[in-house]
Amino acid sequence: MISVTALGEKMEKQITIDLINNFSNIYNSNSTNRIIENAITENGLEKSCIDRRIIEENQPIFNIELPDGKRYDQKDNYRCWIYCGLNTIQYDMAKNLNIDLKEFALSNNYIAFFDKLEKSNNAYENIINISNVDWEYIDKEDVLQHCVNEGGHWQWFVSIVNKYGLMPYEYMPDVF
């Protein structure tokens, strides 16, 4: 028979009504439990667990304001990862080159072009390396059409910039 100790009571493998009543009496004998129970019932567990002292001591007040640069509408092209990366770089470049941020922008279209080029190359390399390719299946399932989709990640952005560099927006603007 397995036994453990809970709340100072020796528990056998079997739970008895007496044991449950004992737990209930111990719980109800502590008036703080009723206050906590009411708070959780009324406000939910998450709100009831907030420690106001910690919130008061850690106010999110910032006094650093970055200047606004040009703003571009990415529309529905799923290039948010490119815009985010370029916005991060543009600020530092403009600052280091002493260029007005409102007059300076980098081309997202340039990064998107090389993203598609790299994705296409990767897809064709995978097909070349596969033996016994069922070309009918590839045509039917539009595998080639969907391998060069929009969307990306920070690491892809970094890899493309490291390999191909950057281009000012004025030399390769958006075409949509």
TrEMBL record:
Pfam families: Peptidase_C1_2. InterPro entries: Papain-like_cys_pep_sf, Peptidase_C1B. GO terms for cellular component: cytoplasm. GO terms for molecular function: cysteine-type aminopeptidase activity. GO terms for biological process: homocysteine catabolic process; proteolysis; response to toxic substance. Transmembrane segments: none annotated. Keywords: Hydrolase, Protease, Thiol protease. The keyword Protease applies. This is Bleomycin hydrolase.
